[in-house]
Amino acid sequence: MALNRVSRGRYESGSQADTEEFGEIIAPLLADGDVLVLTGGLGVGKTHLTKGVSKGLGDEHPVTSPTFAIMAVHEGGRIPLFHFDLYRLEHAYELEDTGIYDVLGYEGVCLLEWGEQFQDELTDEFLGVVITRVGQDERTIALEPHGIRAEELAQAIDDALVASEERRHITEPERQ
């Protein structure tokens, strides 16, 4: 199974590599100030998606979940990537110590794992990316835009995924 578009804003991933590919496809569309809130249970692929975004931005450094550090900065790409893992935070007042307010919505792109628990404290303008396990390796990825820029980004991602599928279908018969 490969990365597939099910409908506008809804995609299927058949593997970790597909989830990373999704990140690589969306990376060129991201701009300074974009915020993605990555939602899903433990082990569904939030960090794999972040790895793909980092690679798609041109940063070749390894990406791991910043569960204990809370924030990791990846500056080797065309724009900085601020990767937050808010899993260990219990209260909104703890956000102050993470450095999130210094960068959120201003420079680079922010990817927030477990950010849904603090949506009211963070920003009104973000793209929710909900990853759900549907099998051993299979996942669904759903986009939930909040705000005008997020709507534009969701549409651009959908267009890019459609184009990617079309390219894949054109080249697959040539391989046979």
UniProtKB/TrEMBL annotation:
Its main location: cytoplasm. One of its GO terms (cellular component) is cytoplasm. It is found in: Cytoplasm. One of its GO terms (biological process) is tRNA threonylcarbamoyladenosine modification. Signal peptide: none annotated. PANTHER family: TRNA THREONYLCARBAMOYLADENOSINE BIOSYNTHESIS PROTEIN TSAE. Belongs to the TsaE family. This is tRNA threonylcarbamoyladenosine biosynthesis protein TsaE.
